[in-house]
Design brief:
By secondary structure, chain A is mainly alpha-helical. Chain A has 18 helices and no strands. Chain B has a single domain, classed as Winged helix-like DNA-binding domain superfamily/Winged helix DNA-binding domain (Arc Repressor Mutant, subunit A, Orthogonal Bundle). The chains are: A mainly alpha, B alpha+beta.
Chain lengths: ~450, ~120
């Protein structure tokens, strides 16, 4: 080994050690710098005593003691760091990262402002928020998600090809949602309002995944992103609610009626802007909520499993059929969505290498009972459709059910294999990420194909 | 011989402030200096020194800055402040009092040894 090689190797080790240190929330970047400098001094001294550089590195690290102890001592002095992770502590980054997070912040502000302004633009063309409810309920996502996708595309330095695809997809969504001659009270309008946001969210996913479209890891990252984004948007909405309450209350106290402003400007603008802000928050601080979604799934997987089992037992005991109409079918669809969510977010946080445990069995019970319940529902539903014929709502609800059912059925199969140690957990993960395009195709089909299929009913 | 934890903790601040009063210094050199001063008996860990330095900085006794001395790496140097000097002289006064008292109570070091031996002999 030449001297240069030894030097390179040493630098490599320092880099790795640094990464390891930086994972500790107690140790900020300047601490890592300081400790690294210390480590280098130790290594230099040991090398001067005649040790080889790799030996010196090992001994110096060993002398510094376990990082657990070290970070505990640091935490005692800097306990605030454990709490302050979430917000704008960009001050401890190195130069590159600092300027990066600054430009991110600016891009986010631009996109959020753009979204807030864009939703007021139709008013210039006579579409008033309180009169044209249908227009806004159908198109709401079109004022928010393109900006979020834009922010993500900007952040990933997306190429011209991807940008063109994004623009094309959003245009397609806008055209598809508005071109059909549907009546305000038709079922198609309701379906489009419900499905366009989901269809567009898949386009956001395109912007998120970027050019690495086939990578299972990137798709899983997008699933994580979606979950965390959702948690953030709920938190922001809660805060926004408090803000609105005080805004209304305080202005009311001085005799100024703010309700109109709140309803037509603050709420819609705030919501579309919050969409972008939530996306930025997830991107800026990936580690924080990540820890909440798995906790929630851990908490609710057993509870949901118990509830579903109890339902099945009751059905079996009473011999009572499920009373299926469209509303209950939608509810059962949503149930499948929740079960799928529980499955997805425990997958996203699970170590794929870990052996099967009790929790995996619980999950299998949950998925299995959801499947049985859904089979019951589908059975009654097909009878009903045969009796009354099809409507757009029926078809959409049924299609959704089948799409989700297929996903869960195969997941259950893979999970069984995994619990019985015949398969790997990675297979479950890959299945979920491979299934994402199916959701995309289905939601787009509901928006674009169903209305003409049913003569815009 | 090991110095007990309590004693290390109590003496840490005056020792560090004393070293910094000699001139600005960085973490590794402070540890070396402490080791030299005590003939290797005081062996502080990094997990002890750096949080202590950060605490002194927070209290305003020392201030720090990243500097690059000629031909050396960029390092975080600590230097004592006016307030730190005041704290040092206050600590100095207190330690003088304690040491003074100890010296009067204790017989000279030479006398302790026979004392223990005599006790053992009695036992």
């Amino acid at each position: 080994m030449t001297v240069t090689n030894g030097q390179d190797e040493l630098e490599d080790q320092f880099t790795r050690w640094r990464e390891y240190v930086r994972r500790r929330p107690e140790l900020v970047s300047s601490d890592a710098d300081e400790l690294e400098d210390h480590l280098r001094d130790s290594v230099d001294e040991l090398v001067a005593l005649g040790l080889r550089s790799d030996e010196a590195f090992l001994i110096a690290v060993k002398r510094m003691g376990g990082l657990d102890d070290l970070s505990r001592e640091f935490a005692r002095e800097h306990s605030e760091r454990l709490w302050k992770q979430l917000m704008f502590t960009g001050d401890d980054g190195d130069g590159v990262r600092k300027s990066r997070s600054r430009s991110d912040l600016i891009a986010m502000l631009v996109c959020a402002a753009g979204a807030a302004v864009s939703i007021k633009v139709p008013e210039l063309f006579g579409k008033h928020y309180d009169d044209d409810g249908t227009f806004y309920s159908v198109n709401f996502a079109l004022f928010a998600l393109p900006w979020l996708a834009g922010f993500l595309a900007w952040r990933r330095r997306a190429g011209a090809g991807l940008c063109a695809v994004l623009v094309a997809m959003f245009t397609l969504g806008a055209v598809g949602a508005n071109i059909y001659p549907v009546a305000d009270d038709s079922q198609s309008v309701g379906l489009t309002s419900a499905h366009l946001p989901l269809a567009l969210w898949m386009v956001v996913g395109l912007a998120y995944v970027g050019d690495d479209l086939r990578s299972s890891r990137r798709r899983m990252d997008f699933i994580r992103f979606s979950g965390e984004w959702f948690v953030y948007i709920v938190l922001i909405a809660l805060g926004g609610g408090v803000l609105i309450a005080f805004l209304g209350g305080t202005f009311d106290a001085i005799g100024v009626e703010a309700g109109e402003f709140i309803w037509t400007t603050l709420t819609p603008c705030g919501l579309v802007a919050a969409t972008v802000v939530a996306g930025w928050l997830v991107e800026a601080k990936q580690g924080v909520i990540e820890n909440i979604a798995p906790v929630l799934t851990r908490l609710f997987t057993p509870l949901f499993a118990v509830v579903l089992l109890a339902f099945l037992v009751t059905v079996g005991w009473n011999g009572r059929g499920v009373d299926v109409n469209r509303d209950t079918l939608v509810m059962f669809d949503l149930l499948l969505v929740v079960v799928l969510g529980l499955l997805l977010y425990s997958i996203s946080a699970r170590d794929p290498q870990a052996p099967p445990g009790t929790f995996d069995v619980l999950q299998l019970v949950l998925v299995g009972s959801a499947l049985v319940i859904d089979a019951l529902v589908l059975f009654t539903m097909t009878g009903r459709i045969a009796e009354y014929g099809t409507t757009p709502n029926n078809v959409a609800a049924l299609g959704e059910n089948i799409v989700l059912l297929a996903n869960l059925a195969w997941s259950a199969w893979l999970l069984t294999g995994f619990v019985r140690k015949r398969g790997t957990f990675a297979a479950v993960e890959r299945w979920q990420t491979a299934y994402l395009p199916v959701f995309a195709v289905w939601t787009w089909a509901v928006v674009l194909v169903l209305p003409p299929l049913f003569n815009y009913r | 011989m090991r110095v007990t934890k309590d004693l290390v903790a109590a003496s840490a601040t005056p020792i560090v402030l004393g070293i910094l009063a000699e001139g600005e210094c960085y973490g590794y050199a402070i540890l070396r200096r402490i080791s030299d001063l005590s003939g290797g008996e005081l062996d502080w860990t990094e997990g002890f020194l750096y949080p202590l330095l950060h605490r002194l900085e927070r209290l305003g006794h020392v201030e720090s800055s990243w500097q690059t001395a000629a031909g050396e790496r960029r390092r975080k140097y600590y230097r004592i402040t006016q307030q730190g000097l005041a704290e040092l002289s206050e600590q100095h006064r207190q330690w003088e009092t304690v040491l003074d008292a100890l010296k009067q109570v204790w017989p000279s070091v030479g006398d302790i040894r026979p004392l223990t031996i005599r006790l053992e002999g009695n036992a």
